[in-house]
Amino acid sequence: MKCLNLAPVFLAAAIGSTSSAFAGVSDVVSTTVERLTLDENVTYSTAGTKGLTSKVGYVVKITRSGTNVVNNLVFEGTTSITAIVAPPVGVTPSGPAVFLEANGDGGVCRAAVDNSSKVVCNFGQMRPNDAPKEFALFFRAPIDTPTNCFTDSNAAPCEAVRFEGATNYSEGTGDNSGSASNDQSSWNVPDVRLGTNDPKIVRSALSKSGGELFTGTDGVPSPATFKFAAKLNAPQLPNYTTATLDLKDVTDNNAASSCLALGNFKSCLEAGVLVPGVFLVPSTDPALTKFLTIILRIDSNEVKSPFRKTNIQVVNINDLTLAEETVQPCNSFGLPDSGLDRCVFDIRRISNAGSNGELRGDVEVVIRAYRNAPYRIR
Length: 378
Known about the structure:
The protein is mostly beta strands. The chain folds into 2 domains: 178 residues, Immunoglobulin-like (Sandwich), CATH 2.60.40; 170 residues. It contains 1 helix and 22 strands. The strands form 3 sheets. Strands 1, 2, 3, 4, 5, 6, 7, 8, 9, 10 and 11 form an 11-stranded antiparallel β-sheet that branches. A hairpin with a 7-residue loop joins β1 and β2. The chain starts with 16 loop residues before the first strand and ends with a strand.
């Protein structure tokens, strides 16, 4: 898997450049496009029935000025794959980055009929003093293939997603709602790099529709790659953001003694689950309450005998004090008790007699949370 840089993700985006109309009256429409994922790389998607869908996201703001009504306002943008460095001989570029969805107010955004990498957003009229059009666009990150430029696990990223386009419109006293676009507001935005050589880190834009991210293949740990795996299931969210899974072996740091004291595992493993800016609020009806589902799995080779799930403790790392705090069991509704942000829904060892294939003997911990945090299992 081609994954992401370790740096924490912040919802604030790196600012893309803006330019105003270059035909007709100046400063009528201006467009700003920003990357949702700052300077961090985005993980490649993967193919297959259990493939990973990671997303490249952009935030768009269209601002109106002047006194004339703007008609037939249309935002268009197309992604392409560009080389950061020259790829090795015989390597073909990845692609494409396909349009998935838009989040925001007003307008209708669709993939172009003849090009799934192109998005067309129609907004109709924009009158003087109208609020800016603000929305986010999401594209599936290119699918990782054996022939892309990232075949060497020690290589630096060499591909990026480029996003280019313009906002077209008509303006002037003689225009009407059916006028053809005859003016443009151009824009550009820095490229979004793809992949890193660390399979333990996954990063993606996250739309309001939520989604699923995981390390490894469908969140399965592997002795050959890493003995720990994580999966995040996000429900429909109040806002778009980014998401990162960041796995570490912290056996050699100062937390190791307390982490290993219970004698359940051979290593002290930590999972950073970062979904910045998302705070889910419990409903008065438990059945309607939304939460993040975090699944952590430890490979069977890391489990000491005899296994007793009652001995296992899950802690989260307080994002302000960095102190370890024990995660309590979920209540009878399968939710955190009042005043708590997270709970342990289930702990189990997957049966050796079952049909779970490579998961047999692994320990699985399921956490339900209203916001993100790093976790350790001990």
